[in-house]
C-alpha cells in the first residue's frame, strides 16, 4: 500500500524501457481477482512537453492492455489537446483540459526558465478546479503524474488520493537526482569545473564510478549552483568562496541573469518602446506601399506574364513588366505615387527580386492551401509527368484531379519537385514528400495517371506498382495526352510534311530555351555564393538538395527508425528517442545539449558502445564545422569498417533483448502488473 501523497516512481530497467512501443499492439487478457472489481478511475497528468506526453500516453495504453476495467482521464492544456486530439487512443482514455496558463509550446524556448516557473506555479489551481469537476462524475482512485508536475502530489494529499509519479528520464539520472545530498555532502556539488572537471564520483548507490561527472552533472542538477542563492538563503559563512564559485565565468548562469536584469531595467531597449516610435503614418504608408507591389504581382499572375527584364536600371527603356506596371500605377494613382519608387525609402522600395519572390511564394502557398481546403478529406487522382528542365535538372510535375462540393470535376496543379533521378523509388519518395507537406495521404488516392515509360507503369518495379502495393484502389490509367503524342510520332514517321512541321517547332523551342538559359546564368552572376548560403540558412526548405535529404514537419520516428534502410540516427539524446533507437537496433551519433542528454550520450558511447559523439569534448561550446560533420558521417556510415560492424552487432544484441522484456513474464509486463496490483488494493481492498 502506498501512503497517501507519497509519489511512486515508476522506473524500468534499461534493457526493457524501450519495449513500450510494441506493447501498445498487444491484446492480453489480464485475469486476476481484480477483474470483478468496479471500474477504477485514474487521472493522468503529464508534463506539457512532447517527450513527456508521449510516454505518459504509452503508459496509459500499456496499463489498459493489461487491465481493461480502468477509466483514465488524460489531462493536458487546451493547446496540447489541439496537437494530439486526432491521435489514436483507447476508448477507456478520455481527454480533459486546463486553460492555457503557461507559455505556448511553439515559443517556450525563448524563455525556458520562465516556462518552467509557469508550470510549477500556475498549473495547480486549474488542475484543482478540474479535479472538482471530474470527481462529481466519477470518484478518482489514483493520480499518475509526471515527476515534474509537483502540484499533483499536493492536490492528491489534500484529497486523500494516492499519487504515482512517472519519471520520463533514465534510471541513472533519477538516481543522481535522488541522492543529490550525497553529492553535496562529499563536496562534489557545487564545484568549479576548471579545477575539478575530471573528478571521479563514486558515492551514488547503484552507480559505478562516474567519470566526467562535473562536465555533465551540473547540467542535470543546476546551472546556477544551488537553491541557496535562489530560495533558501545563503548561511554557510565559513566558506565565503562559494560566492565566487556561484558567480563563475563570464557566461555563467549568474552573469547571464545579471545581464538580463540590467537589460530589463534599461527601458530604452524594450521592444514596446521601439515599436511605439513607429507612428501610425509610417505604418499606413508601408501598408500602402506593400499593397501596390501585391496589386502588380496579382495582375501579372492573372495574365501569366514574366516579371523581369534583362535590363532593369533606371535608364532602361524596358524595365520589365513588374516595374513598368508599378510606374503605370504610380502615374495614375496619387495615393500610391506618394509612397512607391522614388518616394519610398532607399532601403525599403519593395521592388527587389527577392521581395517579388517572397510575395509570389506567399501567393503560391495561399493558392495551394485553398486547393487542399477545397479537396478536404475526399478521394482524388494524381497526374504526374517527369522530364528535365533547361538547366538539365530532373523534375516531376504533379497535378491532382478531384470533384468539388458542387460536383464539378477539377484539375489543379500542385507543384514541381526536383528529383535526383527518375527511378521509380526516387519518384515515389518525392511524391510522398509533397503529399506529407500538404497533408495528403496515399490511402485516399484512387487513380494514378502517367505516361507509358517503364519507370512509371512497370509491372514489378514501376511507380504504378509501388503505389498499388500500398493502396490497391489507386488504379493506373495511361495518360491520354501521351497516347496522342505516340500517335503523332507514328504518323510523323510516315508523312514528311508533318515531320518537317514538328522539326520546325523543335528548333523554335531550342532557340527560346537557349535565351532563357543565358538569362538564368546572368542572374546567378549577380548573386554571390555567400548570399545564397545566407538565404539557405534562413529558409532551408527552398534550398535543400532533394538528393541529400528531405525536411518534413513531422514523422512517425519509431516507424522510420525500424525501416531496414536506416543505417544511423543523429540524436540530441532525449531518453524516448534513445529507447526507440535501441528497440530498432540503430547505431547513433550523439549531440547532447543539456540536462539528461549529456549522461545519456555517455551511456550510448561509453557503456553500450553503440554510437559516437559528434562533439568529442563534452564541455566544448565550439561549433562543429560542415567538414567535420561530413567526415564523421562518412566514417559512421562505412558499413565495411570493423568499428562499424562491431557497433552494429552490439546494437542488434540490445535489440534482441527487447522482445523478452515485452513478453509475458518479462520485466516490463511484471512491473506493470505489480503496479496494477497495488492500485487495485488501494481501490478495492476487499
CATH class of the domain at 8-170: Alpha Beta
Ranges where pLDDT stays below 50 over 5 or more residues in a row are 1-37, 192-197, 221-232, 519-544
- Number of E strands: 14
SS summary, helix count:
30
Largest sheet, if any? 6 strands, parallel
Structural class by sheet pairing and helices:
alpha/beta
CATH fold naming of the domain at 8-170: Rossmann fold
Q: Span between N and C termini?
A: 13 Å
CATH architecture of the domain at 8-170: 3-Layer(aba) Sandwich
Strand content: 5-15%
* Major sheet strand order: 1-6-5-2-3-4
Cα gyration radius (Å): 32 Å
Task: Characterize this entry briefly.
This protein is of the alpha/beta class and 686 residues long.
Structure description:
By secondary structure, the protein is an alpha/beta fold. Among the domains are: 8-170, Glycogen Phosphorylase B (Rossmann fold); 280-360, no CATH class; 376-487, ATPase, nucleotide binding domain (Nucleotidyltransferase, domain 5), CATH 3.30.420; 557-668, 3-Layer(aba) Sandwich (Rossmann fold), CATH 3.40.50.2000. 49% of the residues lie in helices and 12% in strands. The protein has 30 helices and 14 strands. A 6-stranded parallel sheet has the order 1-6-5-2-3-4. A 5-stranded mixed sheet has the order 9-8-7-10-11. A 3-stranded parallel sheet has the order 12-13-14, covered by helices on one side. Helix 14 (280-303) packs across helix 15 (321-331). The longest helix has 31 residues, at 496-526. It is globular and about 95 Å long. 23% of the residues are buried. The model is unreliable at 1-37, 192-197, 221-232 and 519-544 (pLDDT under 50).
Amino acid at each position: 500500500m502506498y501512503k497517501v501523497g507519497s509519489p511512486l516512481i515508476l522506473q524500468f530497467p534499461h534493457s526493457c524501457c524501450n519495449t513500450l512501443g510494441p506493447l501498445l499492439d498487444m491484446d492480453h487478457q489480464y485475469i486476476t481477482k481484480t477483474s470483478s472489481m468496479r471500474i477504477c478511475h485514474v487521472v493522468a497528468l503529464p508534463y506539457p512537453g512532447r517527450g513527456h506526453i508521449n510516454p505518459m500516453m504509452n503508459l496509459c495504453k500499456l496499463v489498459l492492455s493489461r487491465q481493461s476495467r480502468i477509466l483514465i482521464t488524460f489531462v493536458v492544456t487546451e493547446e496540447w489537446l489541439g496537437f494530439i486530439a486526432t491521435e489514436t487512443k483507447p476508448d477507456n482514455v478520455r481527454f480533459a483540459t486546463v486553460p492555457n496558463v503557461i507559455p505556448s509550446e511553439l515559443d517556450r524556448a525563448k524563455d525556458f526558465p520562465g516556462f518552467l516557473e509557469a508550470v510549477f506555479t500556475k498549473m495547480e489551481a486549474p488542475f484543482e478546479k478540474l479535479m472538482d469537476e471530474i470527481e462529481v462524475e466519477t470518484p478518482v482512485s489514483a493520480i499518475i503524474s509526471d515527476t515534474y508536475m509537483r502540484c499533483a502530489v499536493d492536490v492528491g494529499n489534500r484529497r486523500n488520493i494516492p499519487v504515482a509519479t512517472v519519471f520520463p528520464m533514465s534510471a541513472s539520472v533519477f538516481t543522481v537526482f535522488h541522492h543529490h545530498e550525497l553529492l553535496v555532502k562529499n563536496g562534489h556539488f557545487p564545484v568549479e569545473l576548471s579545477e575539478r572537471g575530471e573528478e571521479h564520483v563514486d558515492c551514488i548507490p547503484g552507480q559505478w564510478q562516474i567519470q566526467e561527472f562535473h562536465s555533465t552533472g551540473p547540467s542535470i542538477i543546476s546551472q546556477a549552483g544551488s537553491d541557496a542563492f535562489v530560495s533558501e538563503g545563503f548561511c554557510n559563512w565559513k566558506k565565503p568562496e562559494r560566492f565566487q564559485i556561484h558567480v563563475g565565468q563570464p557566461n555563467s548562469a549568474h552573469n547571464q541573469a545579471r545581464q538580463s536584469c540590467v537589460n530589463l531595467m534599461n527601458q530604452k531597449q524594450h521592444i514596446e518602446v521601439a515599436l511605439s516610435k513607429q507612428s501610425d503614418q509610417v505604418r499606413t504608408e508601408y501598408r500602402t506601399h506593400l499593397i501596390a507591389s501585391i496589386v502588380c504581382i496579382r495582375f501579372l499572375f492573372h495574365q501569366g506574364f514574366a516579371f523581369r527584364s534583362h535590363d532593369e536600371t533606371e535608364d532602361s527603356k524596358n524595365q520589365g513588366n513588374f516595374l513598368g506596371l508599378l510606374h503605370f500605377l504610380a502615374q495614375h494613382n496619387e495615393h500610391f505615387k506618394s509612397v512607391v519608387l522614388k518616394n519610398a525609402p532607399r532601403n525599403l522600395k519593395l521592388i527587389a527580386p527577392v521581395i517579388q519572390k517572397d510575395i509570389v511564394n506567399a501567393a503560391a502557398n495561399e493558392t495551394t492551401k485553398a486547393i487542399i481546403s477545397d479537396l478536404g478529406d475526399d478521394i482524388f487522382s494524381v497526374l504526374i509527368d517527369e522530364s528535365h528542365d533547361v538547366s538539365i535538372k530532373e523534375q516531376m510535375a504533379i497535378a491532382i484531379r478531384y470533384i468539388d462540393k458542387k460536383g464539378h470535376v477539377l484539375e489543379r496543379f500542385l507543384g514541381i519537385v526536383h528529383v535526383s533521378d527518375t527511378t521509380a523509388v526516387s519518384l515515389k519518395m518525392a511524391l510522398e514528400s509533397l503529399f506529407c507537406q500538404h497533408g495528403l495521404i496515399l490511402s485516399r488516392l484512387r487513380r494514378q495517371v502517367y505516361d507509358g515509360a517503364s519507370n512509371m507503369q512497370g509491372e514489378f518495379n514501376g511507380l504504378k506498382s509501388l503505389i498499388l502495393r500500398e493502396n490497391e484502389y489507386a488504379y493506373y490509367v495511361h495518360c491520354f495526352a501521351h497516347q496522342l503524342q505516340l500517335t503523332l510520332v507514328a504518323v510523323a514517321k510516315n508523312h514528311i510534311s508533318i515531320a518537317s512541321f514538328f522539326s520546325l517547332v523543335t528548333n523554335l523551342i531550342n532557340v527560346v530555351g537557349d535565351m532563357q538559359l543565358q538569362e538564368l546564368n546572368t542572374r546567378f552572376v549577380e548573386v554571390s555564393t555567400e548570399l545564397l548560403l545566407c538565404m539557405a540558412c534562413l529558409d532551408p526548405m527552398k534550398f535543400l538538395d532533394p538528393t541529400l535529404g528531405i525536411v518534413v514537419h513531422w514523422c512517425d520516428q519509431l516507424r522510420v527508425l525500424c525501416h531496414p534502410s536506416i543505417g544511423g540516427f543523429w540524436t540530441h539524446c532525449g531518453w524516448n528517442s534513445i529507447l526507440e533507437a535501441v528497440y530498432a537496433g540503430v547505431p547513433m551519433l550523439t549531440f547532447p545539449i543539456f540536462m539528461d542528454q549529456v549522461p545519456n550520450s555517455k551511456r550510448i558511447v561509453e557503456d553500450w558502445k553503440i554510437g559516437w559523439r559528434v562533439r568529442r569534448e563534452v564541455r566544448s561550446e565550439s561549433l562543429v564545422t560542415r567538414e567535420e560533420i561530413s567526415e564523421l558521417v562518412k566514417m559512421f556510415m562505412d558499413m565495411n569498417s570493423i568499428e562499424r560492424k562491431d557497433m552494429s552487432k552490439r546494437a542488434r544484441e540490445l535489440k534482441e533483448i527487447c522482445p523478452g522484456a515485452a513478453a509475458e513474464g518479462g520485466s516490463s509486463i511484471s512491473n506493470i502488473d505489480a503496479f496494477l496490483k497495488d492500485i487495485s488494493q488501494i481501490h478495492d481492498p476487499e
